[in-house]
Each structure stands twice: as structure tokens, then as C-alpha cells.
């Protein structure tokens, strides 16, 4: 199997189990309904673990564009392979989301709430706040990529590494995921969001494209910073990419804050006018 298909299959596995637990815990008449956040975070951790077990020896099991870009910035992955990996991850995510749709086919019609249906496929903020939502995704993915690199620097008994990665995902979900649903992966959010847009889901609402940029831009920026930060702090190597990525993170956060405050001000003004 080629690395391309490894990433397709690995990301598909990730989404089948990850979005699957979202469907099981939220859709009407599912036996797992209302199982709660602990179940969701553990299942996502296992989803990553199983995806890594499946294709780690084939593609390295990035399963995440933020990881692929971060490793390229870190110098441990060829830039020429980045576009193919990201394409494969997107394809796998869409296929995985479509399989979850089919698995819970009668439950979509039984579920009235449009937001619940979208939540199976894509993330959304607990409290909409552009700056905070973006920062949440950046920090979560910073910890993800940094964690992957320091886990990789340790020697494990053969086959144990994927479990350590799964524990990292669980920790991020439990500690940092309550704000935005911790996409921490552009393919994990954008791929299923596209599937939600395309699939004939009964009674579905909009796919919330206005928010969709945050779980794409945030993870890419945060993951990139995690990679160059690791190289600088743990390896003692500093490069131009470190400063470029750091400045990019700061600039985007500042812009998000300014635009978010402007949007809030306009909303407040409209409420006063009414």
C-alpha cells in the first residue's frame, strides 16, 4: 500500500470511530445517547490510536494536515509530499463521515435539532468568540504536535507508541476541548463538514461555513508553532521558520481579536437600535 492510501485509510478509521461516537452520544434513540464528554474524549483517543496502528508503518500515520505541515517545518518530512498527504487526509475524512451517516441512517430523521446533526460531523464553539475560539484551536494543536514530537523522542516497547498518542488526545480533549470541541485537525473538521453539506441528511441545517475557517487556520498555526518550538527548545536549533511562524501566530491572533471586537460592537449597536 502506498503512503497516500495509508493516509486515506488511516484518516477514514479516525473519523469512523470519532464522528461515530459523536453520533452515538447525541442522536435520538441511540442507545449511547447522553453518555457524556468522558466517553467522547476516550473514543476519540482510541480512534487516533487505532488509526496509527493501522497505517503507522505505511505512511507514518499523520492523519492530520497540521501534523504534516508541522513535521515539514520541523525538517522531518519532505515538503514535496505535503500536498498529497493533505489530499489523502481530506478524502479519508469525507469517506469516514459518509460511513457514519450510513451507520446511523434512521437516526437523522428521528433527531430534530439541526445543531446536533452538524455536531456529529464538525465542531462549533460553546461560546462564539472569534479570538478565544481561534486561540483554543491553536493551543490544543500546539500541545498535540509538541506532544507527538516529545513522545516520539522516547523509546517504547514495540507497539506502545500509538497508545501514548491516544492518551495525548484524551488529555487534550478533557483539558482543552470544552471550548470548541477540539478539532485540532483541519481534515477532521473540514472533511466531515463538506460531507454534511453534500449528504442528504433529513432536516439538516446550514453547515456553519462562517466558523469553518477557525478549525482549519487555528490548528495549522498552532501545530506549526508546536513543531518549531520543539526544535528550538528541545533540540537547541533555531531557524528563520521559528520566528516566521511565531510572528504569524501573533499577527493572526491580533487580527482575530480586533475583528471579533468589531463584530461584537456592531451586534451590540444593532441591539440598541432595535
Automatic annotation (TrEMBL):
Organism: Peribacillus psychrosaccharolyticus (Bacillus psychrosaccharolyticus)
Membrane topology label: Multi-pass membrane protein
InterPro entries: Aquaporin-like, MIP, MIP/Aquaporin, MIP_CS
Gene Ontology terms, MF aspect: glycerol channel activity
Transmembrane annotation, as ranges: 6-25, 37-62, 82-105, 126-151, 163-184, 209-230, 242-260
Family under the similarity heading: Belongs to the MIP/aquaporin (TC 1.A.8) family.
Domain of life: Bacteria
Protein name as catalogued: Aquaporin family protein
Keyword set, alphabetical order: Membrane, Transmembrane, Transmembrane helix, Transport
Cellular component GO terms held in the UniProt record: plasma membrane
Keyword Transmembrane: yes
Location relative to the cell: Membrane
Keyword Methyltransferase (UniProt): no
Main location: membrane
